[in-house]
Amino acid sequence: MQNGLFRLTAAVFREKMVKPKKPIGTTAQNTDKKAAESAIFADSEGRIGLRIHAKPGAKKSCVVAIGESEIDVSIGAAPREGAANEELISYLMAALGLRKNELQFDKGAKSRSKVVLIETKRLTIDEVPLIAATAQPELCDAYETVERKFNCGPRGYPLHFGLRNCLVFNNQTIIDKFTPKGREFVGCSTRCLVKSILNISEFSTSCAQVQEEAFKSHVDCYLNCDFCDVCKTEKLAFMKSYDWTDFLSFAALQQVFAIVRKCGVFGCFRVFDF
After folding, report:
1. Where are the alpha helices (DSSP H) in 101-140?
2. Which domain of life is it from (predicted)?
């Protein structure tokens, strides 16, 4: 009797001591968890999230590596909280062609491991690693890349219009003529146009097609970067920046008229709105 009671007690004791095995999740559950913990993910609201490990103090900002759980980014700024964060946002704007209000810190603003959320319809989650991995701070070099591919010459779109205006609007003397809102437009439109010309060069077969498609992209880039707002306050800056002979061509005039139609004839050209 005592032996039977001892065996029963021992069995109960062993059952309590042995931890039950956790049920193994389904493949779909494991995949969802892995995706949620990856370096680039989509949150519950459909925003794109970036898990970034920032490395301040570098000579220039760039993506060092895109790992499974984090994106390593060198930051061309001193390791001070404000300076490093500001430079990181500026770099992401340039690399991904985004506006400042489309980026926000979700976690880690005061640490080196950060989560940045992207809220825009203009960028898909699949495009982020492709763009970030190839992004170059020297944005205007893209026009020379296109020129080497098509050999359009000094009067062709890549050099005569694209590169020249890109360099003008990235010159600090010119940038200083704009208000903070105007500078946001300049940065946004430059990045948009560079991204567009690289895409155009992938499917175009001639210099004529490059020019035609590039001028079309100006309308979308300007409007998406809020030209209809900044044109009301940045008239003098634009007048001092553009070479107005560029607008004598039929293609350029078409671009101007398309933008004016969208903004409204009197939206940008009120004489006393400077």
Report:
1. 127-134
2. Eukaryota
Pairwise CA distance, residues 71 & 39, whole Å: 6
Counting Cα atoms < 13 Å in the Cβ hemisphere of 56 gives 18
Up-side HSE of residue 5: CA atoms within 13 Å toward CB? 2
Q: Return the DSSP state at 181.
A: H
d(CA 30, CA 69): 15
- Nearest CA among 33, 42, 40 for reference residue 73: 40
54 and 129 assigned to the same domain: yes
Query: Which of 134, 156, 187 lies at the terminal end of a domain, its last residue?
Result: 134
One-letter amino acid of 159: L
Give dist(CA 267, CA 274) in Å, integer: 12
C-alpha closest to that of 185 among 116, 123, 233, 138: 233
How many angstroms separate the CA atoms of 182 and 237, rounded?
9
Beta strands 71-75 and 48-56, pairing class: parallel
- CA 206, distance to chain mean position in Å, is 28
- Give the global pTM: 0.51
205 and 238 together in one domain: yes
pLDDT tens, position by position, 35-78: 568 999 999 998 999 999 988 887 777 777 777 889 888 887 77
User: What gap in Å lies between CA 251 and CA 233, rounded to an integer?
Assistant: 26
Q: Give the pLDDT confidence of 100-113 residue by residue, as tens digits.
A: 888 999 888 888 89
- The answer to whether 117 touches 103, Cβ cutoff 8 Å, is yes
Residue type, 152: C
Q: What is the pLDDT of residues 222-237, one digit of tens each?
A: 999 999 989 888 888 8
CATH of the domain at 82: 3.30.1200.10
